[in-house]
């Protein structure tokens, strides 16, 4: 089973490869974005690894509003110690490790961490084909997001933590 741990600077190259395997170029986080997230929000950036190989990641800043806005993909601030809404900007699992519960384990890990820090919700956007996956993990579909990231339609998914 995968081990989940906090991200480290040394993970950068592997994270970029993984992201580009899982997302279209227009949607994938860049190396620069990952570098900034590792430096700024490592406390809400986790990786899953099997025998030292990273096969999954989850990350996102804590935000003041319950919905993700496109500016988050370029501007990230340090997370407050408590409160706010834990966002998920990226959740990715290598194709050969999908359907083994790794994405769910990464979500559960982030949610546990968010609860401990008294966050109000975990919030994310996803494409229509993933709405059901998130609903099975307790997220509520709040309808189409205003996000235009990657030029596709995204849905706001929110899980209350209180």
Give the SSE layout.
Blueprint (H helix, E strand, L loop, with lengths): L2 E4 L5 H11 L8 H11 L3 E6 L2 E7 L2 E2 L21 E4 L1 E4 L8 H15 L4 E6 L4 H6 L3 E5 L10 E6 L2
Parallel strand pairs: 5-7
Antiparallel strand pairs: 1-2, 2-3, 3-6, 4-5, 7-9, 8-9
Helix pairs in contact: 1-2
GO molecular function: N-acetyltransferase activity
Organism: Neobacillus bataviensis
GO cellular component, one term: ribosome
Please provide a written account of the structure.
It holds the Pfam family Acetyltransf_10. InterPro entries: Acyl_CoA_acyltransferase, GNAT_dom, SNAT-like. GO terms for molecular function: N-acetyltransferase activity. Residues 2-162 form the N-acetyltransferase domain. It comes from Neobacillus bataviensis. There is one protein chain. The chain has 162 residues and is an alpha+beta fold. It has one domain (3-160): Gcn5-related N-acetyltransferase (GNAT) (Aminopeptidase). Helix content is 27%, strand content 27%. It contains 4 helices and 9 strands; from the N terminus they run βααβββββαβαββ. It has helices at 12-22, 31-41, 102-116, 131-136; strands spanning 3-6, 45-50, 53-59, 62-63, 85-88, 90-93, 121-126, 140-144, 155-160. A 5-stranded mixed sheet has the order 4-5-7-9-8. A 4-stranded antiparallel sheet has the order 1-2-3-6, sandwiched between helices. Strand 2 (45-50) and strand 3 (53-59) form a beta hairpin. The protein is globular.
